[in-house]
Amino acid sequence: MKDFGTVVIGAGFSGLAMGLRLRKRGIADFVILERSDEVGGVWRDNTYPGVGVDTPSKIYALSTDPNPNWSRLFARGDELLEYTRQVARRYDLVRQIRFNTSVNAAHWDPAANRWRIETDQGTYTAQVLITAAGLVADASLPAVPGVNDFEGEWFHSSNWNHHLDLIGRKVAVIGTGASAIQFVPEIAPDVAELHVVQRTPSWVRPKDEIMISKKAQRRLARFPALLKLERAAFYGITEVFSSARRAKLIRRKFQQVSLNHLNAQVPDPELRAKLLPDFEFMCKRPLVSNDFYPALQRPNVELHTGGLTEVRANSVITGNGEEVEVDTIIYNTGFDIGVTSPIARVVHDAEGRTLADHWGDNPRAYKGVSVPGFPNLFVMQGPNATSGVSSSLIFAEAQALYIASALRTISARDIATFEVKASAEAKWTKWVRKLSTKMVYETGGCVSYYLNSKGDNVVMWPTWSASYQLRTRTFDADAYHLVNNIKSVAPKLVTPSHESVALA
């Protein structure tokens, strides 16, 4: 059995942000459990052709470790993965990561005031458990008849089969989400037939494909203040963009840009009608692409509407009754999210009830990180604590700052257990729900994974990200029940001078 002050689950961007913040606060007694063999999270797992970020790269980096070396405004996946590797190496986080270690269950032990974490590499115990496993970690297949009956080749876009040569194949792509609009243009020239099966169209914005020269990269590396200024400028732009979720007039302006993009790129009125969403802009996350619409107009590509209703041995059946013969299926059908993160199904309270059971159809957490009934637990990217517009890293860093502040307070006061007050969580949730009722997520006429069965937004932060950052700058101990130690089990703290300088 391995015992630590703090256990972090996941070595993606959130887990790395958490590790960096712990190190900066001088908290050394922690370990990061990672189920794969390297860091990177979604950027390690998603390797499909054309994979990249749809948020400007200038804000898709940790503020503690800005990157002057992005080669384009919207970085590709290989650059993002390499960035996470560099961060892990630069701050020696690798030695605190246990790779190939999947968490099967975590139980709170009230007698020991410890979390007991069962993994495929043995048992860990910890005073504090932090989940940083992310929302999009586990791929999801459509719940339609025959999914397991297909006799050809098939895979999910998040687990791309690079050994399969698509040249000359008859391929069905199921779904037209953020991944599909990136890989469809990449594979369209190679396949014999490409059948894109769309359930719901998305608003697509033009993409600023700006390449960043080596000279510009060197200049940014030489002048850190310029890099910081650039990041601030792009952050301001995304904050203005996010205001469209509440301001209908601004939203209509952005929607018109996407509508103009559709009209300019798709002259065929029949195809254009299929690609026109019937909900308001930003009700779902808008996509960015310059080549998706042109790819759909290639002679070997056909768009089918109505979604997927059935899979047969050598074909797929669309929502309008078409049977399309194919030899390959690529599922772009999202991830196993529902209204909770998959990790919530393995975290148990003292009575054995999972976090997912506690939430049911109504996920909620104080500041998106703390849940009554689950002592000494923090959830990163929790309910209403991530972005549908800006960079999710902004939220991950804000949460890491709050959690590290909490751990420092816990250690200083020699606290054995801390648990957010139910009243604090209820007040927070009421406020978030009130804001959400005015957001396009709930009023824009779409159905998305942001919403529960009642139509409540339970995933996305409902106002500016700056507002969230302000509310998570320091740990507010008054919102928690704190119980002092009899025998100290607080996280061990060390603050080597070289770490303080490196992470300042």
Structural account:
The protein has 504 residues and is of the alpha/beta class. It folds into two domains: 2-138 and 337-503, FAD/NAD(P)-binding domain; 153-210 and 217-331, FAD/NAD(P)-binding domain (3-Layer(bba) Sandwich). 31% of the residues lie in helices and 18% in strands. The chain has 15 helices and 20 strands. The chain has helices at residues 13-24, 42-45, 77-90, 180-187, 214-222, 224-242, 248-265, 269-275, 292-296, 355-359, 392-413, 422-436, 440-443, 465-471, 497-503; strands at 2-9, 30-33, 97-98, 103-109, 114-119, 122-131, 153-156, 170-174, 193-198, 204-205, 287-288, 301-305, 308-311, 315-318, 323-325, 328-331, 347-348, 377-379, 415-420, 480-484. The strands form five sheets. Strands 1, 2, 3, 4, 5, 6, 17 and 18 form an eight-stranded mixed beta sheet that branches. A five-stranded parallel beta sheet has the order 7-16-8-9-12, with no helix packed on it. Strands 13-14-15 form a three-stranded antiparallel beta sheet, with no helix packed on it.
Topology:
Layout: E1 2-9, H1 13-24, E2 30-33, H2 42-45, H3 77-90, E3 97-98, E4 103-109, E5 114-119, E6 122-131, E7 153-156, E8 170-174, H4 180-187, E9 193-198, E10 204-205, H5 214-222, H6 224-242, H7 248-265, H8 269-275, E11 287-288, H9 292-296, E12 301-305, E13 308-311, E14 315-318, E15 323-325, E16 328-331, E17 347-348, H10 355-359, E18 377-379, H11 392-413, E19 415-420, H12 422-436, H13 440-443, H14 465-471, E20 480-484, H15 497-503
Parallel strand pairs: 1-2, 1-6, 2-3, 4-17, 6-18, 7-16, 8-9, 8-16, 9-12, 10-11
Antiparallel strand pairs: 4-5, 5-6, 13-14, 14-15, 19-20
Helix pairs in contact: 1-11, 5-6
